[in-house]
Every structure is written in structure tokens, then in C-alpha cells.
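hey can u check if this looks right to u? its 435 residues, i copy pasted from the old doc so theres a chance i mangled smth
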Amino acid sequence: MLKKLFRQKVFKFLVGGGVAAVINLLLIFGLIEWLGFNTPTLRNVANVISIELSLLASFFIYRIWVWPGGVWRIKEVLWRQIPLYHVSAGAAVITRIFIVFPFLDKLGVNYAINTLVGVLLSAFINYLISDRLVFKTPVQSDQTPTQFTTKIYYPEGLAPGLENKYSHPKHPQTGNLTEIKVFSIVIPAHNEEGCIVPTIESISKILEQEKIAYEILVVNDNSRDRTEELLQQLNSENSQVRYINNYYPNGFGFAVRCGLENFQGDAVAIVMADSSDAPENIVDYYYKLQEGYDCVFGSRFIKGGKVIDYPTHKLLVNRFANLFIQILFGLKFNDTTNAFKAYRREVIDGISPLLSHHFNLTVEIPLKAIIRGYSYTIMPITWQNRATGVSKLKLKEMGSRYLFIVLYAWLEKYLSRGDYRRNQAQLVNRKHKVI
């Protein structure tokens, strides 16, 4: 396992950064203590020299060890790669100092967590720019033995629609999964009297138009308004709509867990009560699951995806958080934090028990499913901000909870030695099920 981890590009990048930091410390110590750079002006000069030399050292460490190969022509290295690397490192530091730290500090995040997040994000920004622009891998051509592609690989997920492709990292094994006869929709609802009725009616209408057998299970999460009264009325009008009261403590994660323990279908989609998720995409999820995938993950930030009226501060935090998760787990999926996803029943059974009490559940479920070997596909979806009510997501309260669950999943991936992955016996048994 350690050998596999050691070969990971991200791991090598972090180790290389650590070596460069040690070089920086040794250089500034040597300049001040041994060469006498011990006045205020000379100490600043020593600091500049040590930073520049350690940057050059990290460049060659990355160039030789992390991104080997490529063109070593003097002009290419001196006039393109090294200047771009300085821009990459500078952008990472500026982002950390002038954006990440002040923003998290304003939200009241503990300074230690703030510093840790800032260091990790600046490192990952540096990594991403270096990977996409500085150390581009040469491509082979029939005309010339080696040349660099002129295509710019945009950081995935920083803006919708820059890439034409979205990947299917895991492919289903056709013929070994049961048909989805009933599709369940789980909706957590806390004080949603202003939008719960149109949300359920729009979902019911499109599922009935498509002749999809369904149930809508709403979890009333200790609402203090007319939400429960409206749910009773909806149930009396449509027997396929039912609700239960959350028997856990109040919280988004608890409400979703309550719903996942009580849905009756062969697969389930988690949908928000505020009509932010497009009902048409629920139908898309259903047909993708029928193709044999275990999970369907929607992304608002790929070609065909769309966001409407997304608050700017939340969008920035969302993109940084998803970029962090992407790089940490080596994923091409760029919208992990969105709750709107669909899973077969065996996936929900296979990732239990769930730990998250709050919105960090939206990260725990897909990461566990991916880590434990379930197949998934990615498709573009549309999201629009709620028109009524108040968002229940509080960024100030959620930072450390998201970080906890992400690191928990990362530890499972690299330290559990595959104990929780589906074994071959399970796969064999599933082959006897016919679509």
C-alpha cells in the first residue's frame, strides 16, 4: 500500500514541497548564521535569495521526479517552464494570503484550521497549474517526433462548459444488476412550506409522464411551520407521496439518513425540497441506473451543466472545496458536494453505517461509494437557487465537518487495505441477477 501511495503524483508533489521547504530553511540559516547576513536589510536579502533558490530546487524536483519526461531544451526551460512555475507558485501564495485566509477568518474559522486549509489549497492550486500548464506532457505526432500540444487544459470545474467531455470512470457490468422497478425520491424538509408542494408536484408530474413507478418519501425534519400539514394533504391526494417525521436529532444529514433507512424502491435519488434540482434530471438519473450503473453523479460544472443565481461567495467556496477533494482523491468528478445524486439500494447498504450529521453527508456518501468500488457515471445537471425560504447550509459551521469527513474517507481509501471494498464473491453473486 505504501509503495502504491509513494507512486501517486500528488504524494510526490507534497513530498517535493516538503523537501523544498527544508532547503529554504537551511539556506536562510546558512546565509544569516554563516555568511553574516545579519542586519535588517541583509536578512531581507537572505530571505529573497533563499525563497528563489528553494523555488528553483522545487522546480527541478518536480520536473525530474513528479513530471518526468518532456522537453529539456534550455530555451523551453528558461523562458517558459520556470517563469510559468513562478507564476503558479505566486498565484497559490496570493490566493492563500489575500482570499482564503481573510475569507475564512471573517467566517470565524479557527486560525489553525484556517492555516491548514490555506496551506493545502495553495499547494493544490500550485499543483493544478503546474500539472496543466507548466509541465505539460509531450504528445506524439506523425509530423514531428515530439511536440507539445497547444490545447490548454482548463482546471476542471472552475467554470461550466469549458470541456466537451465528462468521463465515466467506472463502467457497469451489464447483466448482473436487478431492474429498477420502483424509483424512490428522498427529500429532507425543514420549514419548507413555501416550496415543498410545487417541488413534489413537479417531480410527480414528470415521473408519471415517463411512466416510471416511483415513491416520494419526504422526511419532515422537525418543521415548525405548515410543512407537515401540507405533506398530509399531498399524501391524501397521491398515495405515492408519503412522509415520516425524522426520529433523529434535527439536521440535514440525520434527515437524509432517516430517509435512506426507510425508502422502499430499488434505487433512490436524494433531492432538495427547494426546487433547486431539475425534475428532468431525476428522469435522466433513472435511465442511467437502468443501464447498469450503481450510482449516477450529476455535475453542474461540466459541458451541459448549468447554475442559476448561485451566490458568489458560496460558489467560490464550492469550487475550492471540490478542487481540494478532486486532487486529494484523484477524481475527475468535480461536484462531489452536491447532494443531488442517485444510488442503487445495494450501494446504500454497502456504505452503511453513515457518520455525518449535517451537510457533510453529501460528501460522505459518494466518496464511500467510489472508494468501495461501486460503478458510477457522471452527467450534466441544472441547478437554480431557491426562490422561497432560507438556505439551511451555514458555511461558518460546516468547514471543519466537511474536512473531517473528507479526511475520514481518505484514510479509508489508503489505510483500510481494501477491507470495505466489494469482494469477488459479492460480484459473482450479483451476476445471477438479471436485468
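Residues 183-430 form a domain with the Spore Coat Polysaccharide Biosynthesis Protein SpsA; Chain A fold (CATH 3.90.550.10).
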